[in-house]
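Pilot study result, target chain (375 residues):
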Amino acid sequence: MKRIIYLGIAILLMGACFLVFLLRNKQEKHAAIFRQLAAAYESLSTARSNQLNHYAADEFLLAEALYNEALAKCKHQSDKWILRRDYSEVAQLLEKIQLIVSDAGVRAVDKIQRINEDYQKQNSEVGQMIHRYEAFYSHLPLPEEVRAGFVKGRLIYDEAGLAYSKGVLNTAQSLMNRSAALVGGAYYFGDEMLKDYFGAHEEWRRLNGEALRASFSQKVILIDKVARILYVYKNGKPVHEMASELGSNWVGDKYREGDMTTPEGKYLVSQKKEGNRTIYYKALLLNYPNEQDKQRFEDNKQKGLIPRNASIGSLIEIHGSGGRGVDWTKGCIALENHDMDTLFRLVEVNTPVYIVGSLKSLNELYNIGSIRPRR
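Predicted structure:
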């Protein structure tokens, strides 16, 4: 009888030990799962701080969804009696999360590198367009919407740089794309305008050569519109240089009254005006329109390039009241009053006046690096 009792006690003790063993094993598995959950959470947090949600968005969203699923399954198992808990599915999900996050990290690094390379390339290209626009095209009489587009693009370019410096690469790239479109539009508009204008450079060279030859017998006025310089030539050399301001729509030749363009070609001083004969301090009236202007005006009317009721205009002068720092006249050439005094003393009626677009070629100006007028 005692043996039976002792055997029963032994079996109970063995059973109790086995139960304790099972409980500890389950507890260890339970603890291990929660450590894996914590590790998965840490991986997702690190991934978010590394902006994987931006650069590997699909993989990151999948990993988050699997993590939430793992949490739900873990809670479901935790509600069961400890010995009936099975965390194998949870463990599989957590392993899958780690693999996805690891793979996403590699993809994100590649994507970040590509974005960096693309951004740096575009940043350089847009920066060069901004520099070239400001050096060559900002002084052209561009349409207001073109100027406004450039200003907006320039501001967005700076915003892109700020976003890039903060490491927000997707935002920086998006802003740089917008800047490139706006700056590029203004840049190419100005580029085409300038190239089209310089199509007349051979005629400007011819007029310059004629002016230099004429200066050996008399003083000659030569005006470079792009440089905004009025030269007085004598014996083939400039003896005076004066900063000038032009018509507000100065690019191109004058076609009609009201186009705000300073004419180009050969003219003569027809009158010297001062006192109450001019509202601009002193003035030299030119014989615009000359015969070539009149013929071109009639030809353009016949071709329908200007309205049939348009007038050719007149009263083109070299006058004072300049020095405003902008092109503001209706087609005249404005000088500062002290320069007007000098010019008024130097020239007489019938002094030749040659007005050209530029003495330098477009390539020469590009090599100099600017067509900023002298102020």
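One observation from the pilot: The longest strand covers residues 265-274. A full batch analysis is planned for the follow-on phase.
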